Each structure stands twice: as C-alpha cells, then as structure tokens.
Amino acid sequence: MNIANILDEIEKVDGEIYDRISPRRKAMKDFFRVGSKVAIVAAPMAIGSMFKKAYGQTTPAGIINVLQYALTLEHFEYRFYERGAALAPITAGAERTAIEAIRDSEKKHVDFLRTVITAAGATPVAEKAAYDFTAGNTFPTVFTSYPVFLAVAQVLEDTGVRAYKGRAGELAGQKVYLTAALGIHAVEARHAAKIRYMRRTNGAPATKPYITGGNDTGVPAANGNYGGATPESNVVQAGITITNINGLPISANAATEAFDEPLTTAEVLALVAPFGVS
Amino acid sequence: MAEAYSLLSSDFLYSFKLLIYIYRRSLEHHNLQEKLHSFKTIFMTKETPLETVMPAPKGAPNAQVSRRKFLGYAGATSGLIMLAAACKKNDNNDGVDLGSGDFGILNYAYALEQLEAAFYAQAVLTPYTSISANELAFLTDIRDHEIAHREFFKRALGDNAIPGLEVDFSTINFMSRDSVLGTAQAFEDLGVTAYNGAGYLIKDTNYLLLAGKIVSVEARHAALIRELRSPNTFLGDQVDNNSVNISRTPSEVLGIAGMYIKTKINANNLPTG
Question: Where are the domains of chain A?
Fold first, then answer.
C-alpha cells in the first residue's frame, strides 16, 4: 500500500484532495513522499481518519462488519498459536521459530484490524475470555501432541483463507480495505502452505502446500472445513471445467489444487463455534 | 474550481474523440491482422514439424504431439520461446492492448499466467542439475496449476483474450537450481502482489472471487518455493509491518515482468480506480 500513489490517484479525480485533508498541502505531499516509511506504518489509522475528515463520510456498516468478522477470527488464531507456542511440544529450532513467526504475524493482524476499525469510527469487537482449543474434545491432544497441533493449525489456516475469500466481494472497489484484506488473505495462505509443508516431516508425509481434492488433512472431523456450498473439491470455475481444460492433461487433483474455494460467513461461524468463537 | 471543471470537460471531449479515432483505426487494423494471423497459422502448421522440436509429454496417447499440446507445454529449448499461435500483436508501437474494464484486468492476469506457465513448462521439461524427485514433483504440480490458470483465463475471456505472448527467458539458467528457484520465487511473489494490487479495480464480484481463488494458490506456491530455497522465509520481505502482503500496481508489475516478456504490452487502457 503506497499512500503517496493513492493520494496521487485521488488527486487526478479530486484536485483538492490535499487541501481537503489539510490546508498545508505541500507539507502533506512532502510527508507522504519523503516520509514514506513512516507513512506505511501509520497508514491504516491515517487513511481511515483522513478520509472521514476529507469527505465527511463514515465507513459503511457493511465494511465495518467484514472487518469485525476478520478480527473475530484473528483473535482466535492468535490465541491458538500463543497457547500452542507455550504448551505444545514443538520441535526446537527452525520449527519453533516458524510457529512463533506465525503467532507474531497473527498478532499483527489483530493489532492492524483493531487500528483500522477504530480509525473507521467503530469499536473493535472484544476477544473471547477463553477459547476451547480442543473444539469440544474433538482434538483432546491439540497441545500435547505436536502432530495434532500442526493438523489443527492446518485446518485453521486453510479455513482462514477460505473465510477471507468468502467476503472479498463485500469490499469490491474499496481500494484501502479490499487491498488490506487481500494482503492478509495472502499471508494466511503463506501460513497454510508453511504448516502443510511442516506436516510432511511430522507424520503426514503426503501433505502438499496446496489443497488436493477435498479434505486432505487426514482429520475426518475437518470435513466441513473443506466442504461447504463451494467445496475445495470443486473443479468447475465460472462454468468452465478445469480438469483437462482445452484438451490439456490437467488432472482432477491439479484442478482442485489450482483454485482455493470460499466459505460463507454462516459456514465459517458454524465451523469455529465448537472452539468457542462467535 | 469552475475553471478546473471546464478544463476537465474539454480534456474529456478531446480524449473521447481521440478514443473514437483509435477505435476506428484498430478495427481496420484488426481485420488486416486476422487475415495475416490465419495465413501464419496455416503456414506454421504445414511447415513446422512440431514433434521434432517437442518431445511427447509423459503419458501422451501417441508420439504425435498436437499443436494444442505443444502450445500448452511450450516448446523449444532456446532462450526464446514462442508460446502461442503466431503473432496477432499490433504492428504499431503500442503493443498488445490488454483492454479496459474487467476484461483488461483479466487479460493482465492472463498475461502473467502465460509467463508463469511457460516458465514452469520449461523448468519441468529441462530440470535443473541433480533435481530431487520431491522438487520435480512440486514444480510439475505448480506447472499444472499455472497452465490451469492460463487456460481458464483464455476460455473466460474468449474473443476478448489477448494473443499468446512471446517470452524471453534468456537470463534464466534452467540447469541451475538457484536460477530456476530464484526466478520461481520472483514470479510467485510478483503474482501475489499483482492480484492484490488489482483486486479493487475489478467491478464484477464474480471475477473478484475468481482472482481470490487464484491468488491464495499463488501465495501457497510462493511460500513453498521460498521454503525450498531457505527455511522460514515463507513471509520474508513480502509483508509490511502489519504482516500484510505487499501489493503492486499493474504498471509496477509489468515493469518488473517486462524483462521476461518479449511482446510489448500496452496497459494504458486498464482501469485506474
């Protein structure tokens, strides 16, 4: 997200954008150009509050709603890794470093979303006082067995990717909010790929960094996380069958791997409810 | 302010007239190109024994490789690879026009998927020295994903699709693991920033969802390739201080991808928000 570019583009349409934001036009321009590193760090808060002042508009409720939903899920993901890093018998060295990196990444998403929601004039949803990481005793060894911890992590990351994807449409055309959401979505996918890659040396050697077929986790309890109205096993995109598309030897497995699928809000909320997320 | 608006409107009128002129010229030009294209297609089909340039893909029903399969897998071992049927590009200096609106963005994605698919096709066709079975399997998977993406856009765009692009891989050493995986990482990371940066320009939410379905797979690829190269670089320098993946504008992306694409691409008509 380059704030100087964003403002330049707005300036093409609204020549007085800098004056609207601040009468000190040149100072603003210089700030975003010269101090671009500072601007990127401060961007979420700055953008929200600046735009509200500039146009006297509040952020539409639909957008706030998507952001709160994202924050709800990020709260849970962060606590999962926080507790996991503290309790689970994670292999020391590079694997522990990876889990802690993902934990820190989720924490940044929490902080970021809280900042954006606040800047947009709303109150960020509170996190739950406690979560049930066993999902009602479905995963009783989640923090005592490292392979089980990784399996649950994989399910949660894949579900997170699907959850963001399912709501992108509600942010269509929203340069700031959609770009940020897509940016988090891509990071969740990077987490998912990493966790999947780690499982290859932790009891699930056939796991690939992408989703093959439907539920490829080896955890039957996670069937719903890979199912839904548009299941991960889907091989038809916009009415076009991807398997053997245009006469090329694309297998059904490759066709499912090549496209991740969305989950609806209701599907996600039902899936995370056993963990105490709502 | 009133002055600004009148200036704007006269600029707008001029631009509009210019657009009509360009459109008329392009229609004339297009007819000519279609004839030329048909001629080249016929000529190349008759004169180029493709099976001598391109080995049959594994599991192909017979050794006779169809032109379509050849195009799908890309061929030739030289640095320059002609990807698709002849050269339907414009002969003026504006290059291949991605077009405007959602189709423009889809063509932009199609161009990048062409580049990625051609790259992995070559990487699998001529694997680098001492490649492991695991790494070859991963590269083959990714090749198939990128071909699926490319062919999907081609079908979805139909008559609005840009032609096949000519790529230039002369700077890549396909025998070197460092060169191949380094390029793969650059392409995957670039792809993610491209989809993320263009998402807000897409008007139709169905297309936006499709872009979302693809970009997370590109991010998975990026993380995998990064892990193959160096453990725990799955995020690396691709995230900002909020752990949000960075994004790039189409012009930034094409500026970077340009060194691998020989065909000139005209992105001037893409939406800008």
Answer: 3-55, 61-228+263-275
Cβ of B170: how many Cβ atoms within 10 Å? 13
Q: Which domains, and CATH codes, for chain B? A: 48-266 (1.20.1260.10)
DSSP for A172-239, written as a single string: TT-HHHHHHHHHHHHHHHHHHHHHHHHHTTTT-TT--SS--SS--SS-GGGGGGG-SSS-TT--EETT
CATH number for domain A61-228+263-275, candidates 3.30.750.200, 1.20.1260.10, 2.60.40.1180, 2.40.110.10: 1.20.1260.10
Q: How far is CA A147 from CA A74, A205, B103, B188, in A?
A: 22, 11, 45, 29
Amino acid A47: pLDDT? 56
Which residue bears the tokens 């051609």? B118
**B232/A242 CB distance under 8 A:** no
For residues A4-17, average pLDDT: 50
CB B209 within 8 A of CB A181: no
Q: Kindly determine whether residue A250 and residue B151, on different chains, have CB atoms separated by under 8 Å.
A: yes
> For residue B217, which phi and psi values (nearest 5 degrees)?
-70, -40
Residues 131-190 of B with CB under 8 A from A: 138, 141, 144-145, 147-149, 151-152, 154-156
pLDDT, mean of residues B240-250:
98
Give the mean pLDDT of A154-163: 98
The model's pLDDT over B144-201, given as tens digits with 9 standing for 90+, comes to: 999 999 999 999 999 999 999 999 999 999 999 999 999 999 999 999 999 999 999 9
Interchain pair B208, A172: CB under 8 A: yes
